[in-house]
Amino acid sequence: MKTCRRCPTEKEDHLFYPCKENRGGLSSWCKSCKITYNGRNRESVKFSDPIAYKWRNLKSSATQQGVPFDVTIEYLKDIWSGRCAIFDEEISLNPVDSRMSAELDKKLPSKGYVIGNVYWVCHRANRLKDNGSPEEFKKILKYMEES
Q1: Residue 54 covered by a domain
Q2: Within-domain flag for 145
Q3: Domain membership flag for residue 106
Q4: Read out DSSP for the chain?
């Protein structure tokens, strides 16, 4: 049994994360307190500096995808215009309407998240172009214009 230093409740050891640095090998906070704190902290960062928050998520995504990553928070702030690069409509970092949520997209996916290859787009544009090729889009456009 161990007492959580955050909620001072005595709990079973399996309710604490392992931590090599601490005596006894367990975190000083229980899992529940740690999760609650991390969730609140994540939300505060998300709203206090949304570009930095997106940068962290982007870096993690690049690692998972195995693609290059060299963009900085400053670079992302420099290229932020508040408009979708595809639809030229206003986008938001903390939107009410998720379709107009700002996202970073790669011009050439194989190049990764590198300076000169990323741009801000709205969620809707990003989803529409997600897997399509220029040839497929031309066929869709031709079909729509003929209708």
Answers
A1: no
A2: no
A3: yes
A4: -EE-SSS--EE-GGGEEE-TTSTTSEEEEEHHHHHHHHHHHHHHHHHHSHHHHHHHHHHHHHHHHT--B---HHHHHHH--SB-TTT--B-BSS-SSGGGBEEEEESSGGG-B-TTSEEEEEHHHHHHTSS--HHHHHHHHHHHHH-
Residues 83 and 133 in one domain: yes
User: Per residue in 85-121, pLDDT tens?
Assistant: 999 999 998 766 777 899 999 988 889 999 999 999 9
| pTM of this prediction exceeds 0.70 | no
Residue 78 structure tokens: 């420099």
Task: Give how many domains the chain has, as a whole number.
Answer: 2
